[in-house]
């Protein structure tokens, strides 16, 4: 709590861990009058009277004091303590995420209508048994695909959450397009919807995994559960709005396949654009391979360390699914070398707690008796440094003593020579 002497009207102000501050004034009846929550984000004006004992820092609205109706509505859909309990990029991301969810809901209704039409709903000649068998085959294919994809790629989505998030939504659009086209080719209907459901199950795995990673990034007060729950409430509200609009839209386009397809393409374009803006709004402070490479490249070219916002804006979103760095940690010694001469050459003059070997496929193999996070970081650092500078430049920087502390203030770093 910091007391303010220069302003007669403002008694004091309080500042939170996020840097947000709000002031307190004296009301006519002697109570404290605080600036409204969310004023910085939503442009609320005025103040409300508060007394100790409530939520969010100990304030409770005094009886008879008017609270803006929008504040009550936002409290249902925003995490407690917003905006200080979430990351600064929470609001722009959620707004664009709501737009893409609304567009996806409308596209999904068109796809569902096409699938039901292809199965035979409304057709007196359709067989119930055939429709049931088709639906079971479709679901079984998706379940198997979900298990295989989670085993294959589950551990690779944390560091590239933005790329996989965008990939999942684009794949979802492809799956819905297949469902819309399925009734046009009745002979391949079962195979088409099986492929579509397989893609949707992959979308479910990738979307759920990246949503968890982004929730961890957004939660700033150990409130992952609250952030996740309110995200679910926002998504439910958007889906409900999409459902209501779909009830009005489907009777207008169901009898005209070309109009239905045109609406789908428009909604798909909106969906992809909103997804792109959503992931671009994210400012993730941790370093993955792509952001670390950008930071190193920028430092070597200009002698400056990129901030999180700049690095995230420069990070490619359409690539990065397959890391260029193939790294194997904790490899048994017999897989690294098979002769005494090679082993002696590896350990000669070696002071680090690990052995590092490059094989012909450019895979790094690291052998350690006691793995540490620092040594693992050094292995990745030197690989990426070689990728962005070349072998000669890497040796030059190594002689000058460039270490992993280059991004810390006060660390001695070599002067860049201006060459990329």
UniProtKB/TrEMBL annotation:
Q: Name one Pfam family in it.
A: UVB_sens_C
- The main location is membrane
Is Cell membrane found in the keyword set?
A: no
Domain Root UVB sensitive protein C-terminal residue range list: 304-362
- Which InterPro entries does its entry note? RUS_fam, UVB_sens_C, UVB_sens_RUS_dom
Domain Protein root UVB sensitive/RUS positions: 70-302
A Gene Ontology CC term for this entry?
Answer: membrane
Chain residue ranges for the region called Disordered: 398-420
| Keyword Zinc among record annotations | no
- Identify the keywords attached in UniProt to this record, alphabetized: Membrane, Transmembrane, Transmembrane helix
Its protein name is RUS family member 1 isoform X4
Q: What organism is recorded for this protein? A: Physeter macrocephalus (Sperm whale)
